[in-house]
Design a protein that fits this description.
Length: about 210
């Protein structure tokens, strides 16, 4: 039916744009929320005359996003030199000594360093693994190799992998599998993520389709 076909075609055109705008708006709301929280903290510890002057700042649209962005940019510039890194190390050491807080902080820091470091192994390689049962295959991403006590039990022939869910790849499962049980793919991580999010409907470019025997 032409109407149904046109509706589906129109949906495919506008859906990526709508999702992109939604994600950007969500990020802006998050940054604005962080800024509003900082302003409220400043008002709480400031004298009443100064606190009142901060009230109109809350009603400037988009100011929180700009200030948080500028703050992140300035922080990155400051810690890119020797003096900045020295202060950063002392800051990390101080936070790592606070009871309870240090457990959460150290865990989050290790994960962020692994994910966003250019020298890290997280999400560098797309894999094909059997999950959730033998004979059923899915896309996964290598996040490293088992280390510490876990690595001593499993040995060197294991890899750590993250199996994302579809269509939301931000949730998934962490597995440690024998290296022999995974197949390393030539497709990029971006192509593999697109393949997962599209539930297999968008094949990676440059990958030939299966030919009949």
């Amino acid at each position: 039916m032409p109407v149904k076909k046109y509706l589906l075609t129109g949906l495919l055109v506008w859906l990526p744009l709508a999702i992109t705008v939604w994600v950007l708006l969500w990020v802006m709301d998050l940054l604005d929320g962080i800024f509003m929280g900082l302003v409220s903290m400043i008002q709480a510890v400031s004298p009443e005359s100064i606190a009142a002057s901060w009230e109109h700042v809350k009603h400037i649209p988009g100011l929180g996003v700009l200030l948080v962005f500028a703050g992140l940019l300035l922080t990155g510039a400051l810690v890119s030199n020797v003096a900045g890194r020295w202060w950063l190390n002392h800051w990390h050491n101080l936070l790592a000594k606070i009871p309870v807080f240090k457990s959460i902080y150290n865990s989050v820091k290790k994960v962020s360093d692994t994910l966003f470091s250019s020298n890290g192994n997280a999400f560098r390689t797309a894999l094909l693994v059997q999950y959730p049962r033998p004979g059923a295959w899915t896309i996964a991403f290598q996040t490293g190799t088992p280390a510490g006590e876990v690595g001593s039990h499993l040995g060197k022939d294991f890899v750590s992998v993250y199996v994302p869910t579809t269509p939301n790849p931000t949730s998934g499962f962490f597995l440690m599998l024998p290296r022999a049980d995974v197949i390393e793919l030539k497709m990029s991580v971006d192509e593999a993520l697109t393949y997962v999010i599209s539930m297999g409907s968008v094949a990676p470019t440059g990958v030939p389709a299966n030919q009949p025997d």
